[in-house]
Amino acid sequence: LMEAIAATFAASAAAGGTAAAAGTAAVATGILGTGISWGTALSIANAGLSIFGALNQGASLSRQSEMEEFNARQEMIRGQEEGNRIRENLLRTLAAQNAAYGASGVDTGSGTPVNVAEETKAAADRELEVSRANAVIRAASRRNSASALASDSTGAMVGGFARAGFSLLDQFERQRKIG
Fold first, then answer.
1. Which has the closest alpha carbon to 164: 70, 48, 56?
2. For 159-178, how does the pLDDT look when each residue is reduced to its tens digit (9 = 90+)?
3. 163-168 — which CB contacts under 8 Å span 24+ positions?
4. 58-96: burial string, b at 16+ Cβ within 10 Å, e else
5. Tell me, what's the pLDDT at 87?
6. How far apart are CA 144 and CA 139, in angstroms?
7. Among residues of the chain, what percentage have pLDDT more than 90?
8. Would you say 97 and 117 are in contact if contact means Cβ atoms under 8 Å apart?
9. CA distances to 2, 105, 160 from 5, in Å
């Protein structure tokens, strides 16, 4: 039976690409050789696996948090690109208006052409402000998500270590009651 437990932990280590499960198996194998009960050995193994799982979950959540931070920066870049597109459209529109007025022989320095240009600029400014605000909101949402994931990462690791500790304490308490 001990060989089967050791083989299971070794397979976990190979599948997970980490030495934590293999180390747990080695500890459990060594402990059983010292006359410690199966229950104690299994509690130690369980604690090792809890820590192993907590570390993996914490690392995964941490990577997700980093990706959300990257996505927040990307949102701001997309917002800047959108602002550039709005400015380019404004310049094309103003140029087209001036060309049309000039071709018609209209004075572009006063009257209706000036009013139309001002309205065109005001509309572009409003669109630019909305675009900036939307980019800031999207980036803030990504940053909030990153912060939550980072917190979850810490919680997963603390919880895993706590479960491992309580598992061992529970086993030692049972052993103490047995004598």
1. 48
2. 988 888 888 888 888 878 87
3. 163/47, 163/50, 163/54, 164/46, 164/47, 164/48, 164/50, 164/51, 164/54, 165/47, 167/43, 167/46, 167/47, 167/50, 168/43, 168/44, 168/47
4. beebbebbeebbebbeebeeebeebbeebeeebeebeee
5. 96
6. 9
7. 48
8. yes
9. 5, 93, 21
| Residue 33: pLDDT band with limits 50, 70, 90 | low
Q: Residue for token digits 């039976």?
A: 1
Task: Tell me the residue type at 33.
Answer: G
What pLDDT sits at residue 79? 96
N-term to C-term CA, the chain: 25
Helix (H) or strand (E) holding 166: helix 112-178
Q: How many whole angstroms separate alpha carbon 29 and alpha carbon 47? A: 15
Neighbours of 139 (CB within 10 A): 20
Residue 101, pLDDT > 80, answer yes
Whole-structure pTM value? 0.64
> How far from the centroid of its chain's Cα atoms is residue 20's Cα?
24
